[in-house]
Amino acid sequence: MSPARFTNKLAGQRVLLVGGTGGVGISVAQALVEFGATVILSSSRASKVEDVCAQLVSDYPAAKDRVSGFACDLASPNVEANIEGLFKNVGEVDHIVYMAGDRLPTIPLEEVTLEKWQKCNQVRTIAAVLVVKIGTKYMKKDRHSSIVLTGGSISEKPIAGGWSMLALIGAGLNGLARQLAFDLAPIRVNCVAPGVIETDLWQGMGEEGKKEFFANHESKIPTGKVGQPVDLAEAYLYCLKDANATGIVIHSNSGTFLI
Ligand SMILES: NC(=O)c1ccc[n+]([C@@H]2O[C@H](COP(=O)([O-])OP(=O)(O)OC[C@H]3O[C@@H](n4cnc5c(N)ncnc54)[C@H](OP(=O)(O)O)[C@@H]3O)[C@@H](O)[C@H]2O)c1
């Protein structure tokens, strides 16, 4: 029999996808199932978690014992208790991928208030830190265990239009991943920084607004096409599989840095 040194790297691994019911999460979940991993999805709405799990099982019937999910609202004031509850349900994991993100916090500076700024941070940074704090108690202290955070290309590439708060959040996540790679070693910690990816994250713009925004972006970027979740999923897979990668930020952004 031929060796399977590469294709089996994720087989049998338990991977928790926090915010795993969105566009990016579903693609990563599909890839993980295809590579033989066990996928546990989480997001705030139980009905969405159930629907996405059911769709995965329908697409991959042979993987029905490798797909499960639990609701956990990260925007709640009880976020810490919610996360404790999530990990009690999930148990031991080999990897945690954090990709939860609520409505895009594009707030012009003059409209920022303490309350709005705290709300911007709750799901993307505050809850991320708490998931890492609590989640590491459920991980082996091993370089084959890893955590992947999700930032964004905005951390390196400023654009006009009220993105300053999101740039700070993205840059903070890059720094957090690098620092935690030391603090949590030998568990690996990395960050994926997507450019524009075609998912529901942009639905707040409305169908017409989104079409216009994507068309304008595509007229400038080298690939000529906004990123698709199936493209970006590769960045997460790489972070999980390369036991030598820690403290790095992986960019997948249609060549955005070149424009
Ligand atoms: N798409 C892009 O262009 C892009 C670019 C840069 C960075 N990113 C980042 O990539 C990550 C994934 O984005 P996506 O494009 O897949 O977005 P998406 O389709 O909107 O998915 C977001 C995920 O976060 C979950 N979520 C939202 N609020 C939550 C809460 N209070 N508690 C728990 N989970 C919550 C959503 O599920 P529920 O709503 O059911 O809770 C969903 O599973 C986000 O962090 C986003 O900021 C995306």
Automatic annotation (TrEMBL):
It comes from the Eukaryota. Signal peptide: none annotated. Keywords: NADP, Oxidoreductase. The keyword Oxidoreductase applies. The lineage of its organism: Eukaryota, Fungi, Dikarya, Ascomycota, Pezizomycotina. One of its GO terms (molecular function) is oxidoreductase activity. It comes from Cladophialophora psammophila CBS 110553. Belongs to the short-chain dehydrogenases/reductases (SDR) family. Pfam families: SDR. This is 3-oxoacyl-[acyl-carrier protein] reductase.
